[in-house]
Amino acid sequence: MSCPREVAADPVASFCLGGALLGPLERNLRGQASPQIVPLLLALITLETAAQLVRGINLGQHHVTAYNVATLVQRGVLLGGVVALTLARSLVLPRVLLSWGIATALSLAVSGVWIWWRSPAVTMSACHLLKGWQVSFARGFRALITITATFVLLRFDWWVLGPVLGSKAVGQISVATAIAEWLWYVPTILGSILFALVAADRSDAAVWKVARATRGVAAVVLPVAVILMLVGRYLVPAIYGDAYREAGRVLVVLAPGVAAIAVHLVADSYFAGSGFPLVSWAGALGALGVKVLLNALLVPIAGILGAAAATSTAYSCLLALKVWRLGRERGVSARDLLVLNRGDITYGLTAARAWVGERVHSA
């Protein structure tokens, strides 16, 4: 088991391979940086951005299968490449990045082929390309600000705490974050599906579908967050060893905020599908500002526990803002968004029985 300092030593390995693989892989990747890595990373991030945008077109066409398949292709190929390099004892950073590039390019190709098949033939001209570009540019710029601010918000600790508290602190908080973020994987997928739904239909029916999904996610992640708060200090050392005992305490403080952002990802699909209005990008920037301010106040006093408290507070404020705005704009109360009701349970049981019945009938 690597020490906390080793975990944070290579942020490229952290980004490409995920928190769960950092310990065993980081030792093989240390010291392999070269002047070519930075432009390679910029090219890969550009390719990754293009893949995300094209997968967004899949959702815009209401083709969730294409979106999911393209995502799975990317992750499967990247994982297969890393495993193959490990078995061949060739786990060096340039080859890992090459595997990432190949996986992303294949994902982009899968999405593109499906878009080509589902799109009607059109005659391309400068008029077609330029028509409506002002509106598209404004909407895209709002989305860019929102996504960029949210990304910085989610990864702020990893970049800022190093110079302030050292790489050991970054290692501890990154491990705690990697565990806590399991809470938002399913909400991220659900939010992407609802985003496409709202983009096509902003009626009351679509809003109440978002509210029902948000209640369902809250009913799952909030109890899990409570459990993590109770056992987190013991869970992390049990998995990673005594060197990560501090990460267990960080997880306890971080769990409420990560649960809040998981619920937010579903509720926010309404605003994302509505074209990223003021509350989207201003809310993301505001939450980032809250996190920066609280870090400045709490980190000198409480170290990484203060940073975790700042994160939880910022995430919770962002959720509170979206809940308030949905209530003001569409008449959806906080109870409608956060508290499961009897109708939800009935709906879930009915859907489950229908799903089982279809599988039995098809078998």
Short description:
By secondary structure, the chain is mostly helical. 84% of the residues lie in helices and 0% in strands.
Describe the structure.
The protein is built from 16 helices and no strands. It has 363 residues and is an all-alpha fold. It folds into two domains: 1-119, no CATH class; 138-363, no CATH class.
Mean pLDDT: 82
Care to count the β-strands? 0
Number of domains: 2
The main pleated sheet reads as: none
Instruction: Please report the number of helical segments.
Output: 16
| Secondary-structure element string | HHHHHHHHHHHHHHHH
User: What Rg, in angstroms, do the CA atoms define?
Assistant: 22 Å
Give the distance, in angstroms, between the N- and C-terminal Cα atoms.
Answer: 47 Å
Show unreliable segments.
1-32
Supply the helix-strand structural class. mainly alpha
What is the helix content? over 70%
- State which percent range the strand residues make up: under 5%
Global shape = globular
